[in-house]
Description:
single chain; about 70 residues; mainly alpha
Amino acid sequence: xxxxxxxxxxxxxxxxxxxxxxxxxxxxxxxxxxxxxxxxxxxxxxxxxxxxxxxxxxxxxxxxxxxxxxxxx
Length: 73
């Protein structure tokens, strides 16, 4: 039985990942800081932002790799 992917792959999947993570990079600190400015919210916003930036960097690197592979075909 052939394996059926449940998520998009290749360039489409990489673009979806970049866009979704960009929404997290912007949205997570905004939501955390608009609900309050106490220490817990600020720490959550900083940690969430750091994790989202690391993921975004990984996804952009993957997108560039996918585009380069497509260009070299």
